[in-house]
Specification:
mainly beta, Neuraminidase, 5-stranded antiparallel β-sheet, 5-stranded mixed β-sheet, globular
Length: 355
């Protein structure tokens, strides 16, 4: 195995943030042959989590303004930020390692400037086209060489392609190489109208048929297709739920003590990002009462949930300045990922080429 020597990026997070992990997290990652990445729009950071050779957790952090949606495609990451969508490539060839032990080094190779569209989740279709949730314009969109975006779909209840975040479209599920489902906080057609329906107005929409297949959610996020079911986060209730799109039947899998925004499925487990309340309270959401009834406080971090039992089997917790997270992706086959920061000396001094 060859060893590629790289400049050593800062792999620590800001001093005012403390991290802790469950004792079994390193073993779980090794047993499941995976690592994971997650974002915080609040602090504008991308985190990459893996396991070092000595069994400790590796944490690599880089700055991306208002880091939001993530999509992992083999050795490639797509990341939505405040006004750009980034493409990061793993620069290592099979058998190479970076900094003596990292088996993936993600380098920002391209940034498409979209303007501030409040992009939430994103994915890649069968043709390699990036499809993203354009929350500001209440539509699904793709990149355009000339313009900020090209609209590819909007909910049937939205009558105009215009800014204003009418329904708070936020989550996207890709299935069979095409957009399949989205989540929306409400069926509204007026700018900001969704805010009046946060407690029970949420819907799951089948993009292929323009049909609302399930409703009554509170602030739903992150639909994911698993077999013939759809898993999603009923965030305002604090629930991970399974939906049968054919019948709208739902099954509660787990209650989590925090506001959930990101969901990744790896085998028979779900990785979920949790956030604390933005202004000290989840006022107006059922989650507030549910936490009070259980005598629990919300926490910020990533929980790994067994989909069969609904139990949290492992976790990573963040305390300090970071209180809100967004998306999470599993990175199968990668044990120790790292990245080089945009505009950093490390990125400028790291040159690779193909002869």
């Amino acid at each position: 195995m060859s060893d590629m020597t790289l400049p050593n990026p800062d792999e620590t997070i800001v001093p005012t943030v403390r991290t802790s992990v469950s004792p079994g997290l390193p073993g779980w990652l090794l047993a499941n042959a995976a690592s994971f990445a997650f974002t915080s729009y609040q602090t504008g950071q991308l985190f990459l989590i893996g396991v070092m050779p000595d069994g400790s957790i590796s944490l690599n952090q880089q700055n991306y303004a208002q880091a939001m949606g993530l999509s992992a495609q083999g050795g490639r990451l797509y990341l939505a930020s405040k006004f750009q969508i980034w493409r990061l490539e793993n620069m290592l060839q099979p058998g190479e390692v970076g900094n003596g032990s990292f088996d993936a080094v993600f380098v920002p190779r391209n940034a498409q400037t979209t303007g501030d569209l409040d992009v939430h989740e994103l994915g890649v279709d069968r043709d390699g086209r990036v499809v993203f949730v354009n929350t500001s314009f209440s539509c699904l969109a793709t990149l355009d060489l000339t313009h900020s975006f090209r609209s590819v779909w909007k909910p049937p209840f939205v009558t105009a392609l215009a800014p204003g975040d009418r329904c708070h479209l936020n989550g996207l599920a890709i299935a069979d190489g095409a957009p399949a489902y989205v989540t929306s906080v409400a069926r509204c057609d007026t700018p900001g109208g969704w805010r009046q329906h946060r407690s029970d107005g949420g819907v799951l929409i089948d993009v292929r048929t323009d049909t609302v297949v399930a409703e009554g959610f509170s602030m739903p996020h992150s639909p994911r297709v698993v077999g013939d079911k759809v898993l999603l986060l009923d965030s305002g209730h604090g629930l991970l739920v399974e939906i049968d799109p054919a019948t709208a039947a739902r099954r509660e899998i787990a209650f989590l003590t925090g506001f959930m925004r990101g969901l990744a499925i790896h085998g028979d487990h779900a990785l979920i990002t949790l956030s604390k309340p933005r202004n000290g309270t989840f006022a107006g959401l059922p989650l507030e009462q549910a936490l009070d009834q259980r005598g629990c406080e919300a926490w910020c971090g990533v929980a790994i949930v067994n989909l069969s039992s609904g139990a949290i089997v492992e976790w990573l917790r963040l305390e300090g300045d970071i209180t809100e997270l967004f998306d999470v992706v599993a990175l199968p086959g990668i044990r120790r990922p790292m990245s080089l920061g945009v505009g950093s000396p490390e990125l400028m001094d790291t040159i690779t080429f193909r002869a």
